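[step 3/7] fold_predict: job queued, chain A
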Amino acid sequence: MRKRSPAKRLRPRSTSRLIYALVALAIGLSVHSCTDLPVARELEAAGASVQKLAVDLGTALRTYGRTSTPGLAVESAPAARTGGAAASTGTGDFSACRNFFAGGKPPVVTSLPTHRALCYDAFAILHSGESKTAVYVAQKLNRASVADADEKRTNRFFADARLRAAERATLEDYKGSGYDRGHLAPAGQMPTAQAMAQSFSLANIVPQAPQHNQGTWRVSVEDATKKYAGRATGDVYVITGPVYAPSIAQSKGIGPGQVRVPAYLFKLVYDEGQGRAWAHWHLNDNATRASRPISYAELVRRTGIEFLPGVNLAH
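[step 4/7] structure written:
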């Protein structure tokens, strides 16, 4: 007697088609058997809704299958859908990664429908679907995390599958653009191999002038911040982001997706133990040179964002 060969697993696409077919059949039979009843039209409408849901689900599965994201934490809901106080302040739902913010409180920004809060192993991002870059990226550094930041760089950039296709940057956008893919949370500050791999998410990247990215910004801002955190006695909170002028819509765009090019970059450094905060503010230009940091109050004035809500700074 011949052994039966094991049945092949259904591919995801076949599975989704089968589920759709069964759901459609069940609804169709229900409507057919109730055609003489007053609820027939309601069942028909329900069937149409389920059909649309099945189609949308199939599209989402296909999109997810085309893009991989290494080892990411569970994503949060879009800020505009969180409701209550979070929706009015634009803080989003960072419940899975509030440890990256001083006092567990994210910056207070104006909420937009295209904002989405994302948690990673070693940083958190509030992403803008309008600019297709971060609004800001938050980190918490200390002696231990800096000492562990010795991972081999992978350089494997990727589009983050947790963002809607219409709201995220792609590798194609940066190709031949003349701009570097500039990290906001630097790969060289990541304490584990997985965190370092996650830092190459394009949600953590902005179009940056090459000489600025590889020179002044890296040496006088990123390296200086890492060294400071490595000597600090406690936690150092760092928030980095782009500034668009005069607006996102009026800023230059690159690639098919028109990823917006920021006019300025900032990096806020807050030493919790010392109660001190300062910010680096750089023009996104190859000619930019190192400059003195600005005060926290000046950063708030220039950006309109309260980055450290509830924090009393030492004077």
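[step 5/7] annotate
DSSP finds eight helices and eleven strands in the chain.
The mean pLDDT is 80.
exit 0
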